[in-house]
Amino acid sequence: MVMSRRFDLPGLIPVFPLPGALLLPRSRLPLHIFEPRYLAMLEDALKTETRIIGMIQPDPLSGSDKGLHRIGCAGRVTQFSETEDGRYMVTLTGLSRYRIESEVESFSPYRRCNVSWAGFECDLDGAESDDLFDRDRFMAMLDRFFATKDLSADWSTLKDADDELLINSLSMLLEFDPEDKQALLEAPSLQTRRETLMTLMEYAMRGGGGSEDRIQ
Any transmembrane segments, and where (predicted)? Predict the structure, then answer.
């Protein structure tokens, strides 16, 4: 079992399959929870010390409509508020990626999996760096990408963000295909994620895909 700074990461976690949703370590993902099974998942997670929910993407190539990718990212519920009609607005803060070992069959309305945290120890070691990051070149490409896709952005916030926050936030916010999101998640380093992100933006600018998100 891998030790985080404040608690042990459990071997059995609830998982939230959501295509296109990407959570990365030390990043924050807002969620709007309203389905009864996921309301039950949230209520149960809040009763635990870790408050962990594992984000995971469905795998369309698995041959099953319930198939999941093997790698996801777990987050801790760090903020939540309830609306008058019983829905929840939740913020997950990314802790660590994990690998699914098996799914647990139970009477629970939501899915739970046995997971391994091995191989992702770096996720708990603090912010990553990218020694080869050419920030000026990257920001110039980002400017062209936003112009091509008619996107708006708070440029002062982007320019002030540290390298990891910039790369991970864009990886999460920009609307790429789910399989591209999975590639960004599984990138073994911040440098690889940045290179993948740049490749995806270049491909989108050439007409191979795009993003319709607006970053405010």
Answer: none
The verdict on residue 2 lying in a domain is: no
29-73 pLDDT per residue, tens = 999 999 999 999 999 999 999 999 999 999 988 877 789 999 999
Residues 110 and 170 in one domain: no
The bridge status of strand 12-17 relative to strand 52-56 is parallel
| Domain coverage including residue 179 | 135-208
Q: Which of 124, 144, 171 is the last residue of a domain?
A: 124
Residue 92 lies in a domain: yes
Q: Domain check: are 17 and 119 in the same one? A: yes
Residue 203: pLDDT band by 50, 70, 90 thresholds? very high
- The reply to whether 198 falls in a domain is yes
